[in-house]
Amino acid sequence: MVGWVLQVACDVPVAVSAAGVFDYAPIELNNTPLNLAVPEAWLGHTVLVPFGKQLLVGIVMGISTTSEVPPAKLKPIQAVLPFVPQMSGHWLDLVRFMAKYYQRGLGEVALPALPIALRVAKNFVWDQTTGEMTLRTGMRTWRKWRALPPSPALLNVGQALNLTHAQHVVLDDLLERRHIDLRPQLLFGVTGSGKTEVYLQYLAHVLQDSADGQVLILVPEINLTPQFAARLNARFGMETVVTLHSGLNESTRLMNWWRAASGQARVILGTRLSVLAMLPNLQAIVVDEEHDSSYRQQEGVRYSARDVAIYRAHQLNIPIVLGSATPSLETWHNACTGRYGLHRLPERAVKGAMLPEVTLVDVQKTAAQDGLSEPMRRTITETMVQHHTTLLFQNRRGYAPVFYCGHCGHIHDCPNCAAHFVYHSTTRHLHCHHCGQQERVPKTCIKCGNADMHPIGQGTQRLEETAARLWPKAIVRRIDADSTRKKGELEDAFADIAAGVVDIVIGTQMLAKGHDWPNLNTVGVLDVDSGLFAQDYRAPERLFALLQQVIGRAGRGQQAGRVLIQTAFPEHPMWTQVRTHDFETFATSELAVRQQLGLPPFAAHALLQVAAPELKQALAFAQTARELALILIADHLEFAHVTINAAVPMNMMRLNRQERAQILIECPSRPRLQAFLAQWQGALVAQKSRLMWLIEVDPAEI
Ligand SMILES: Nc1ncnc2c1ncn2[C@@H]1O[C@H](COP(=O)(O)OP(=O)(O)OP(=O)(O)O)[C@@H](O)[C@H]1O
Ligand SMILES: [Zn+2]
């Protein structure tokens, strides 16, 4: 025993260990220069450790001179992994912050930030002949990466656009502030206002400031990365740019991660997971479409990549720019109260391009046939005659959302979830969009045996069929999660749309944002009424943003754009602001409602979610949790303003064969809520329940 131990973070659920770190004895190993004389040098190294009967990959988060494990029981580490760069102190701090803020174990946060090949113990093997450690998969990528020059890639700044006056003003202001005003800076620019060009020129300055500086650009969806990466490559040179997202194959992801983590890549473009990438020389962050709900990680540790990015910038004292045409209400509130800087681009960048004219089609008056009203059909035909492209926005994939027996009225539901099966014509199967269950379409109703079964309602596949029937000569492309599973399919479709050869594009929200297709000048919006009346308090915000984004795809070139929205509720107050593209009025009135009701951003929320085979078990645990919370509040004066709501079944109660209950916790002060949650979580872990439960901080939906 050397008098100190390694605190190693392993990916173990919080219910097993709230802290997620375990003590191990350091030992000298011959494949590493680390020795027992310099404990601090071990920090941030990735190691293999015995855990029960298995080996796990872990990261050294701390050094301690004391341990609760008696020396005789302390196990030694097995190896220091040579394939993972040492994580910086900043990175370790980021992990600590996230674990604390989101109430998770350190290992649950830290390990998923590594590429899969580096977080599975079985992938590391000793070569018996040389005595060296090797990777079962990824060794070739490792050699390729090692062969690259270790120095940061040289920047090669390409031709920039001439900025419009408004872009100039914003860029100058951002550049001036980058050393003196490190509040997050919101770039509030209408769709097509040229935010991307501002980011590029801004980042070019940041990169030229230092020879090894890195910048991180976050985008909400994988499908936006090819277009963005192409612009970055053209501007900064292929050698400097890497992308990081879950759609990459394993070896590319590994390579890109190494290039970023070693400081070799200078420009890192990624989706939410890249916010956790180890970046040794990060100098600036841009979060594009900062309002987008895709920035929320909904599995494992539930975090907001936008919020983590803001923390990361703050921690490093570097600038961060958030861009959006429809900022989240939290961000907008912060900009209005001066906590964030605010920059505006009120007009489109392309000369002559204007925001499109928006018309409502009252489907109570002009009935829609096969989902398309007469004015909608006429406009599509006109657009085709002019050789322009129409985008039909139908935010539901599959053929029909309901499969129904005309005889007994039975609707076919997923056996695992509280959800209807969606009929898919391409597979001729019923699919559950929640758990993935697929079943053959039954020949007769499973309830009454009658063969009179129909798909009801419309999804993208049915709309595609309708479009092909109504416009037999049209080139139609459907873009949704089902149509784009094959590699390259999406890129091909995008290339066709960009080239202007597609007449009708049918798409879900996947298509609504970010894309810039000059030939697209008509947008038809179908089936959004349910969003007008949804329960969740964030529903209006989400719908408004989605509509502005999809409307914003029209008329980005020289041709004026037009948008038709089919609705049965044309008198709904939201339409006025949608039609006039008036985000500010919308945001002001929504924020007033939120303030009145004490909802975020005027209060902080957390949820306890419990899942069990039966609802009563889930509710019983939630009830116990509630009682524990009430005791904590009674015992601590500082928790007086924490409100614990009743334990209730979740909106979507049954998911994947589990029944779910939840408790909403509210508090006007975020730090107090944090302090409360930490203590409560400890009390919950002590219950040693076998049920699945978790605390979600800042939940996107309640
Ligand atoms: N200064 C400029 N001069 C000419 N064209 C420009 C200029 N800046 C941007 N553009 C063009 O304007 C179009 C829209 O720009 P961009 O896609 O960056 O907008 P955006 O603000 O990101 O929009 P969205 O919010 O809809 O994603 C692009 O085709 C871009 O090339
Ligand atoms: Zn299901």
UniProtKB/TrEMBL annotation:
Cofactor note: Binds 2 zinc ions per subunit.
Listed SMART domains: DEXDc, HELICc
InterPro entries found in the cross-reference section: DEAD/DEAH_box_helicase_dom, FdhE-like_sf, Helicase_ATP-bd, Helicase_C-like, P-loop_NTPase, PriA, PriA_3primeBD, PriA_3primeBD_sf
GO cellular component: primosome complex
EC annotation from Swiss-Prot or TrEMBL: 5.6.2.4
Catalytic activity: Couples ATP hydrolysis with the unwinding of duplex DNA by translocating in the 3'-5' direction; ATP + H2O = ADP + phosphate + H(+)
Domain Helicase C-terminal residues, every copy: 440-594
Enzyme class: isomerase
Needed co-factor(s): Zn(2+)
Organism domain of life: Bacteria
Binding site for Zn(2+) 1: 405, 408, 445, 448
GO terms of biological process kind: DNA recombination; DNA replication initiation; DNA replication, synthesis of primer; double-strand break repair
CDD domains: DEXHc_priA
Binding positions (Zn(2+) 2): 414, 417, 432, 435
Residue ranges of every copy of the Helicase ATP-binding domain listed in the record: 176-345
UniProt GO molecular function: 3'-5' DNA helicase activity; ATP binding; ATP hydrolysis activity; DNA binding; zinc ion binding
Entry-linked Pfam families: DEAD, Helicase_C, PriA_3primeBD, PriA_C, Zn_ribbon_PriA
Presence of the UniProt keyword Transferase in the record: no
Family as reported in the entry's similarity comment: Belongs to the helicase family. PriA subfamily.
Free-text function comment from the UniProt entry: Initiates the restart of stalled replication forks, which reloads the replicative helicase on sites other than the origin of replication. Recognizes and binds to abandoned replication forks and remodels them to uncover a helicase loading site. Promotes assembly of the primosome at these replication forks.
Quaternary structure note: Component of the replication restart primosome.
Name assigned to this protein: Replication restart protein PriA
Annotated organism of origin: Ephemeroptericola cinctiostellae
